[in-house]
Amino acid sequence: MTSLPSITLGDEKLIESTCRQTPNFNLCVQSLKSFPGSATADVRGLGLIMVKVMQSKANDAINKIRELQRSAPSPALTSCASKYNAIVVGDIPEANEAFSKGMPKFAENGANDAANEATFCENGFNGRSPLTQQNNAMRDVAAITAAIARQLL
Amino acid sequence: MANLSPIILLLALFSLIYGNAIASHHVYRNLQTQQSSDSSSNQPYRTAYHFQPPKNWINDPNGPMRYKGLYHLFYQYNPKGSVWGNIVWAHSVSKDLVNWIPLDAAIFPSQPSDINGCWSGSATMLPGGKPVILYTGIDPNNHQVQNLAFPKNLSDPFLREWIKSPKNPLMAPTVANKINSTSFRDPTTAWKGKDGYWRVLIGNKVNSVGRAVLYKSKDFVNWVEAKQPLHSAQGTGMWECPDFFPVLNNGPINVGLDTSVDGDHVRHVLKVSLDDKKHDYYLIGTYDASQDVFTPDNSQPVLRYDYGKYYASKTIFDDGKNRRVLFGWVNESSSQNDDIKKGWSGIHTIPRSIWLHKSGKQLIQWPVQEIENLRVNPVNWPTRLLKGGELLQVNGITAVQADVEISFQVREFQKAEVLKNWADPQILCGMKGAGVKGGIGPFGLLVLASKDLQESTAVFFRIFRYQNKNLVLMCSDQSRSSLNKENDMTPFGTFVDVDPLHENLSLRTLIDHSVVESFGGEGKACITSRVYPTLAINEKAQLYAFNNGTSSVRITRLSAWSMKKANINGN
Description:
Chain A is mainly alpha-helical and about 150 residues long. Chain A has helices at about 5-20, 25-35, 45-70, 75-100, 105-125, 130-150.
């Protein structure tokens, strides 16, 4: 009986070894595996997938911000809208192009900034944030993305 | 019909530089959407005499060169926004490295070998005074390849248009050469060996081994990879923006050499930008031209050009003034959100002359002499004591846009704090900022300070006693530079190889709204930082000399000047 080719095992190993070098192994593995194509992606490809995950978390935050702006507008909320706009218009396209073309330092830059913007948004509420869940989610996936970019430097 | 446009541009250039600014339609047509007057109140961080375009993102200086008496500077530019992306080669020219005229973008995607991006590269002067550019292009497969471009019209002193070789790419990663297709970029200025072959370096890595791959060519079109890289190092990651050049060994100060010069009177410098560390490092060593191998004098410690924010730098030999000039990029320390709001991101430092110190141990950098033409309204202090705890305001200059030179004489060495174990200087500056009292020091300058001192950037010295010798720490402390905590205000530091027992400690600082460029020990230690005060802006910024140590120091010299605004890219 011939042994099974080890392709599938090898690729899970890449996801796992890549995620082990990020701040949140479980979230990293879960995020990547939920996207088709992750099984056959190289590290750069995994980075690109995480940028898609960042986009999704940014959208969640923006939707929540819009909802809150209708019911309970505030300067802190307006400031958050501006910060998430920067993530969507600046950080994410930058990280995308950087991973695609092989300049990982700008992917790291974009991801780090996205994590910062989420933190600044959260700080703007002085402890009474209605966006904690969304900001934490954004920050966590951005930190993973930055760590994957670091592996390509 | 005669082409008059170069003449018109030349006239505009001269009149701009010599003071009668004419808003020549011909020159300013290149500025695309020209913003209506951006007053200094809504753009408090725009610099007055540092290189930057009117808006958008910039990074690496590209292909700097001197041609027909004019300096050319190209640079990585995003025409569409204030983050990195959509990169093209923007282009400016200057008579004096201080005032710059913008031109149309010189190199932008137009052929398969650069259709996905025109990344960094360098210029080489071929025999007969013909400049050519080698640069990295991103091809349809998102692979990094090296391309050749040359001027369309050599009789245009502005070299506005460039043609690409139909043979591009000239160097590319292949299955055969096993070069990593996402780690192959930033060709250097080429140098010619005694065998008549041109050599060029390309930045590369294999796993975590950083490498300067060497290619050779007789005709500048057909390139063959050498059997080994010029140099490589384990564990350093990708080598970006390599630079390789000769320096005079024990030569006169501020004298440079053409990149192809070699001989017994010469040492060589290999410089790389480390992707992993985000800093520019250099090694001094010996170039064996027969083997095309570089051997550094010491592998540790590797020195940096600048101990603050400084990256992607490169040098040229300026054959007009026989000096080597260094150009470097300084990114923002503000958030992306702030960059998008202000509409721009990135500047270059003042170009620096660079040469080997007579000790042979390090390079010296000093702002090009031409920048001093912007100095006005000099303030000079007679020599005086600066007692422990004293704060002296420097009046009579525009503190937000100034050039300051100050020298200190130290005497009471017995009061120096003892440093028991060697520590990383940046960490030391973080632990012992300007507010932490010391034995000798901290003493230096408070720049971009608010009247109430809620905001200030401190550039200072602190002297330690370490292993029975005096150790001088130089810091640029941004930690109190702004009430806006969304900025990166990490302090920077380095040790300065000066013994205050035998010579005065000097500091020169160029202040320009949101950039502070400091030179300690007459150019032995350089620290560049970016700050974004909220109070200390425009006419509200102040400048002080301070001493927060217990012992006095003597100010042997203080000279300060307001700096005029330069004409930079139609600012």
